[in-house]
Amino acid sequence: MTGWPPRALLALCTIGLSNGAWANLTFSGTLNEPPPCTIDAGNTIEVDFGDVGIKRIDGVKYRRGLGYTISCGTDTLPWELRLSVKGTPTGFDGAAVQTSVPALGIRVFQNNQPFALNAPMDITLSSPPRLEVVPVQQPGAILAPARFTAVATLLAEYE
């Protein structure tokens, strides 16, 4: 049987005889959820482009404003509000929602810049970005007369 080295025994004895200060630590806090938000009181926002000339789709004509309001409950914490458009992008434009016509999309703009789908951006509740939409077609595609629809979700959420 081997014994403890003298230095190890001295260290153990010194630890036991220490007169150091100590204190208990207590941690507490409150977990909060961000306040609930609604866009246009939960109603569907509809944009009707009406009759669109297939040879006049140029990403400029037929541009429409997307009017919306965001309402959030009050809270004292500085939550960061984010806005995104969730939808299926076209294969030719990451800021355009795929429509029921394969070569046709609806491009979304925020403050006159293309708004990439499914990519949230930080916003301020008091001045949300101006959103606009416009039909766009796949370059080189030839469109045939048809009715079209597209669906996306405008999402405001706190992070």
TrEMBL record:
Keyword Signal recorded: yes
GO term, biological process aspect, one: cell adhesion
Gene Ontology, cellular component aspect: pilus
SUPFAM superfamilies per the UniProt record, alphabetical: Bacterial adhesins
Keywords: Signal
Gene3D superfamilies the UniProt entry points to: Fimbrial-type adhesion domain
Domain of life per record: Bacteria
Extent of the signal sequence: 1-23
Record-given protein name: Pilin (Type 1 fimbria component protein)
Organism: Pseudomonas trivialis
